[in-house]
Write a structure and sequence with these properties.
The complex is a heterodimer of chains A (about 110) and B (about 900). With about 110 residues, chain A is of the alpha+beta class. Chain A is built from 4 helices and 3 strands, in the order αβααββα. Chain B has a 6-stranded mixed barrel. Classes of the chains: A alpha+beta (about 110), B alpha+beta (about 900).
């Protein structure tokens, strides 16, 4: 049974992987995209975003590369690896199961 | 693929740390810049925008640290940082570092050397395929050999060996260009090579078919080393002939490199078929069931256990004893190959284990020394630890750092010890015993030695590191910070046990080495039954040099005349061998009136010598009664013998045996004409043994020694004798030239080894006690500078100050020394078996050990004591 922190961290990993599924992005872009897509609900601070990115890179699920960016100077772009894609699928599945379970409890308890 | 990426990333994080750091910085900067722009876009002025960005951004340091952690390399970085810290700390206190590293290096080095020798002799397998299945077959506990006819029977009847071979160490004369040299080789049965599973380096081995009939198979195999050193590795040697004992032998092949026969200590140069034995040794024992001259070994069939093999051999021994009285008492046991079976393996293992234990004691002492130093130092660093704790360092982090320090010390010590071992073992491998015998030890360190050295180094580090770590763990913020100077000298702690423990070990080693040294001096003075000093000897073999038995007397007379003509020579005589040299033989005799001739009724293991007139006088063997031999005791005269006191008592019940008779073999009656004092014949530690001397003229033996005594130094005399022999008989291959003392080298060798090893350990132990006591005393003085200053300022006399400082350490030293001495006296009992004359009850020895420890303690405390009483009270107080 994961502790709440793990749950949140796992969720952040899932969100990052899902965000990157659409294409390579730099850290700033990932945070912005999450904020916009979630309707300004999910604001990820750099204090958790970058460690998460480094951790994912360390796991081999994403890969980083310095490239010219829309920000006017080079930025570190993160992209999903093949492993990362598989991991995303796994995490999506387990998330859906969890979310479904939670929904069921809320609906029927 | 993913593994590769992870590896690349981690290694980059490690190896290109600065680059990774810069990357991280840039990435975070970019994020902050975006926040600032956003704030600016909202219409804030630049300064306010920057502040807002920083606020929103949060702690950059924390984020960066979290990222580093995410990369999973923190502990590695910490480790390297700890190593740097440890090295810096050692540079700050070099005395501590040098003491610690040196004592460890000595401890580890001593162990590695001892283990290296132990491993080379007992653990390293012979360079043959499946060495663990090849066994030496002992006959009983002390006898190694068996008669050749019995070997044949065992070979054909046993069901447990896939191949059973016999062999014998054999000196031989190799003629080359008119010069004859004695070489040491092996006579081996034809199945030797296949049993050992060897492949020739060149040519081929002789086969069982080429080892069928006496003197009919002049084939030779050379050892690789001999081929290289003597023939320069010339491939043309294979197929050519060499002359051995005057006969042409065809070299069929070269043994593989590194193979010198199956006994690790005896390096054979030439291997000949067993059937050539009569040609090599002059007299044949191949068909004599009473001559126990062959050694036996074999490869067990797959799946056959040692116990099963011994059971099978026991059955055969019973059968053989029933068939022939000569085979009574055969008892076969198996030993691993390599050290002449049980004969040497047992003693070597016992001795090696003993020395290894002593070496471990040295290491333990070094370890206690190091632990005391480290924990004294840890006490010094309580303040530092407390500061670091209060600044937020985790305890586990502190513990890790202390362990790393111990590890760095251990690594340096281990490296020093390994270097020491490489040097010493290398020197030992090149060392040639000053003997006329090919004793070589290949003890160059192998992986076993290094594994052992680093294994004990790690254990030492863990043991020594434990004490300071425990202290660090207990460090409290407040206590450490305010009590930096408070050293409670009044309370006894576990740390106080380290010094006495170490001293006890050292005292034990010192007394053990004194026991050994004393034993050696006594052994050198022990009654040998002869006076070796002043006498010199040369050896030769008539048969090897091609002289017939008929030609012997004339040659002998010529040699004797020449040697007597050397200026200064007082007397000279012949014998076949001298006591305590390598060439020893024994026989059995029977009491007068014996009718039932079997091993049980005989007097066994009687050392025998064939001696010429004047031998007793030249060698200084005291005649107790009767006479020695004269020129008249020749083949035509009645059979006579001189016996030693022990044999006289065994034969006749009293030492007064002149004129009495005994039986040699079943029908030769011999009269005793003289009785001489007992002596030592094979080893210095042997129990009194019977010995018999036959007149050389009645007992032909082609192996001869010529002994002479003169007023000149014996080594000079020996060279003069060699030259004289060469003049008298140019064909004669002379060997074993030297003083009689030198010929005794082999019997003194184990004892010398014991004394050298124990002496080295004793010295090490003294050095360790010195550093241990010095370290403790210096530490106490440095911690009590203020106390000393106050006392001296108040008018305390120097003696009082010293008593105040050193009373306690003196007690510790005394306790340790007493404890160690008791241990040493107990250990001396064990040593008595190896070192002749070692006795644990020896007042001089106890006094010597006490004096040595006391002197070392005084010397070690002198420096710190001088510093203490030389303290300038004013300055010390001001420093506080």
């Amino acid at each position: 049974m994961p502790k709440p922190a793990d749950l949140l961290q796992g969720t952040l990993d899932l969100l990052i992987l899902r965000t990157l599924a659409a294409g390579p992005l730099h850290g700033w872009g990932i945070a912005k995209r999450m904020l916009v897509v979630s309707g300004d609900v999910l604001s990820v601070g750099q204090g958790s975003l970058y460690p998460a990115l480094h951790r994912l890179e360390n796991q081999g699920w994403i890969r980083a590369e310095w490239r010219d960016s829309d920000l006017g100077r080079p930025a570190k772009f993160y992209a999903l690896t093949a492993d990362g894609r598989r991991q995303l699928e796994r995490e999506l599945k387990s998330w859906n199961r969890l979310a479904g379970a939670v929904q069921m409890v809320i609906d029927q308890a | 693929m993913r593994a590769f990426q992870i590896f690349r990333m981690r290694s980059r994080a490690l190896l290109r740390r600065s680059e990774a750091e810069a990357d991280l910085q840039r990435e975070l900067d970019l994020h902050r810049e975006q926040l600032r722009r956003e704030a600016a876009a909202e219409g804030l002025p630049p300064a306010a925008a920057a502040r807002a960005a920083s606020l929103r951004f949060g702690s950059e340091a924390a984020a960066a640290e979290a990222c580093r952690d995410a990369r999973g390399v923190t502990w590695v970085n910490d480790f390297f940082r700890d190593i740097r810290l440890a090295l810096r700390g050692m540079r700050r206190s070099p005395a501590f570092a040098v003491t610690a590293v040196l004592s460890l290096a000595l401890g580890v080095g001593a162990n590695a050397v001892v283990f290296g020798v132990f491993s080379a002799l007992l653990l390293k397998p012979l360079p043959i395929a499946g060495a663990d299945r090849v066994f030496f077959v002992n006959n009983g506990a002390t006898q190694t050999s068996i008669s050749f006819p019995a070997y044949r029977e065992v070979r054909d009847r046993n069901a447990v060996f896939s191949s059973l071979f016999a062999y014998r160490l054999a000196p031989m004369a190799l003629d080359q260009g008119g010069v004859s040299d004695r070489e040491f080789g092996l006579l081996v049965t034809g199945n030797y090579w296949s049993a050992l599973g060897l492949k020739p380096a060149a040519g081929r081995f002789f086969t069982p078919e080429e080892d069928q009939h006496p003197n009919a198979s002049p084939y030779a195999v050379l050892s690789y080393q001999f081929w290289q050193s003597r023939f320069g590795g010339d491939p043309g040697v294979v197929g050519s002939t060499v002359r051995i004992n005057g006969m042409a032998y065809t070299v069929t092949g070269i043994a593989p490199a590194g193979f010198h026969g199956t006994d690790t200590f005896y390096w054979s140069s030439i291997f000949l078929p067993m059937m050539m034995q009569p040609q090599i040794e002059g007299r044949s024992w191949l068909d004599n069931p009473n001559d126990f001259d062959a050694w036996m070994g074999g490869r067990l069939k797959p799946g056959v256990t040692v116990a099963a093999a011994e059971a099978n051999l026991a059955t055969i021994a019973t059968q053989l004893a029933r068939e022939n009285k000569a085979n009574e008492g055969l008892r076969f046991t198996l030993s691993p190959m390599g050290l002449a079976g049980a004969l040497l393996r047992g003693p070597v293992r016992a001795f090696g284990t003993g020395v290894l234990l002593l070496a471990l004691l040295v290491l333990l002492a070094a370890c206690a020394n190091l632990a005391a130093l480290l924990s004294a130092r840890a006490l010094d660093r309580r303040q530092e630890m407390a500061v670091r704790l209060s600044l937020g360092a985790g305890r586990s982090r502190l513990v890790r750092q202390l362990l790393t320090e111990a590890l760095v010390l251990a690594a340096l010590g281990g490296a020093g010890g390994s270097l020491l071992a490489i040097g010493l073992l290398g020197a030992l491998s090149h060392w040639r015993a000053p003997l006329d015998f090919p004793i070589h030890l290949d003890v160059n360190p192998d992986w076993r030695v290094f594994a052992f050295a680093w294994g004990i180094t790690l254990v030492t580090a863990a043991l020594c590191g434990a004490a300071p770590v425990r202290q660090a763990w207990k460090t409290s913020f407040a206590g450490g910070l305010k009590g930096g100077r408070a050293l409670r000298l009044g309370r006894w702690t576990g740390r106080d046990l380290l010094l006495p423990l170490q001293l006890a070990l050292c005292a034990l080693l010192v007394s053990a080495s004194l026991v050994a040294a004393r034993g050696l001096t006594q052994a050198l003075r022990a009654p040998l039954g002869m006076q070796p000093d002043g006498a010199a000897v040369i050896g030769y073999d008539l048969n090897l040099s091609g002289y017939s038995e008929a030609a012997a007397p004339a040659l002998q007379q010529r040699l004797l005349d020449r040697v007597r003509g050397i200026p200064g020579v007082e007397s000279a005589a012949f014998a076949n061998s001298i006591p305590l040299s390598i060439d020893q033989s024994s026989t059995s005799v029977y009491r007068e009136g014996t009718t039932d001739f079997r091993p049980r009724t005989s007097i066994r293991s009687v050392a025998y010598y064939e001696i010429g007139p004047g031998y007793l006088h030249v060698l200084g063997t005291r005649l107790l009664a009767g006479r020695g031999f004269t020129d008249h005791d020749d083949a035509a005269a009645p059979r006579v013998a001189v016996v030693n006191r022990r044999l006289a008592v065994l034969l006749t019940g009293s030492a007064d045996a002149v004129g009495k008779r005994f039986l040699r073999g079943s029908h030769t009656e011999v009269e005793i004409v003289g009785v001489v004092e007992d002596g030592k014949y094979s080893t210095l530690t042997e129990a009194p043994r019977p010995a018999v001397f036959w007149p050389m003229a009645q007992e032909y033996n082609s192996t001869r020694v010529l002994i002479a005594r003169s007023t000149r130094p014996p080594s000079d005399l020996a060279l003069a004798m060699r030259d004289a022999a060469h003049d008298a008989a140019p064909r004669l291959a002379v060997y074993g030239v030297g003083s009689v003392r030198q010929q005794l080298g082999l019997v003194y060798l184990p004892m010398r080894a014991a004394v050298v090893a124990l002496g080295a350990f004793g010295l090490l132990a003294l050095m360790l006690s010195f550093t241990g006591i010095y370290g403790m005393a210096a530490y106490i003085v440095s911690r009590r500078v203020r106390d000393i200053a106050v006392r001296m300022a108040l008018g305390a006399r120097r003696a009082q100050v010293l008593r105040f400082l050193f009373a306690r350490i003196g007690w510790l030293v005394a306790c340790g020394a007493a404890l160690g001495l008791a241990g040493g006296i107990a250990a001396a009992g064990i040593l008595a078996g190896i070192v002749y004359g070692a006795s644990p009850r020896d007042p001089e020895l106890i006094l010597g050990s006490v004096a040595a420890i006391a002197l070392v303690a005084l010397a070690a405390m002198a420096g710190p004591a001088r510093r203490a009483i030389g303290t300038d009270p004013i300055r010390s107080l001001r420093q506080e």
